[in-house]
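Final report, Chapter 2: Outcomes

The project's central promise was a pipeline that accepts a single protein chain and returns its three-dimensional structure in a standardized token representation, suitable for archiving and comparison. That pipeline is now operational. To close this chapter, we reproduce one record exactly as it appears in the project archive, with the input sequence first and the structure output second.
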Amino acid sequence: MLARSATPARTGEAHAKSPAPRVGAPEHETVASDHAPPGSLPISHDLSRVSVSSRPSGPGRGYQSVTRRAPPIMRGPSAAPIQGVFENASGVRRLGGTTDGAFRVDTPGEDPRVLKVVRDDFSVKASQLGRRLGINTPEVTQVPIEDARGVLDRFKQRAPGAGRPVAVSQPLIQGQTARGRRGGPFSERELQQTGHIAAFDMMIGKTDLFENFEQNNDEQENFDNVMFSGGNVHDIDLDAGIFGERDNARRLSILDEIARNPTQVHPFVKRKVGGLLERDDDLSMLHVQRGMMQFVANAAPNQEEAQGLVDGDSDKERGTRTMLGAFAERSETAGNAVETLNAEIERQTREREERQRQRRLEREAAPARRPAAAPARRQRNRGRRNRGCCTVM
């Protein structure tokens, strides 16, 4: 099982309780190359340890969209007390940036939580799978639908209709959505974790983060489905699960093309991932591709246990199992791609550092600039005054 690390640092009023790979490791750390041969990574390995080296590259609002003002928390009285898991709730408000009916629930003395009323329990299974495979994602738990509708009614929030019979709850991650972090700067850790998430979303059929991202559309909700917090990147809103032969073939072809030519930035990575981050320089995108290949390389040693987390008969779970098996078949090739990417990233990083050093030396060697001469008019006036005061008759 992948090693779990401490939770991200507390930011704002609460913190996430989801695990994050190697949060405690310093970002400037060089990771030793002690992993097993590609394709047979030990189960105890955390995804970040697939990388041979990690160099510093720079310095992660809430669940709702930062461009929409959420309605105020409603605390109106109700005749009936709340029963069940939310009986001590002090306020509820709807969160923007989602179509699935997400609400923030505040309880005195506890961290805020997100409550959603959805169609099925796939997000519970997907969160368990993601956490097992080293993805930063909040732990989603199912709660009684009666408790969920009761607390929403208590605080005068309209719950989704009968077509959504399942209620789930998860910690509210405090941080910034991708909308708030566009353009960076991003650390290498954040870029690699973004790659882990991009590959994981292919596995579970999630389309509303990278897959259907449209450039030049600032109103889309994709920005709100990933969170930057405490130096880590968190995949949230795992309700989707869209599979089909064409969908799977397209996703796997992207991974195969990256594995065959890992040092070339793939168009999907540049347009979709780089477009959403507004950071598509080649070196940053190679970090993302390394993260994607790390995730695929980690599928084989975790396949058996991971399959057991999505063993239901729903289309979403069957589709996820199919993709998990396809990822496992590609683990060895992906491991080789990681090694190639390690060398290329190291080379490009050294070249960038050398260019920066040369520019710094050139600035230091440049002669000091002389003060600008006084304007000619001022000089002429000074000359006239001197002649007037100093002429001897």
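Archive annotation: Confidence is low (pLDDT under 50) at residues 1-45, 48-83.
This record, like all others produced under the grant, will remain available to the consortium after the project formally closes.
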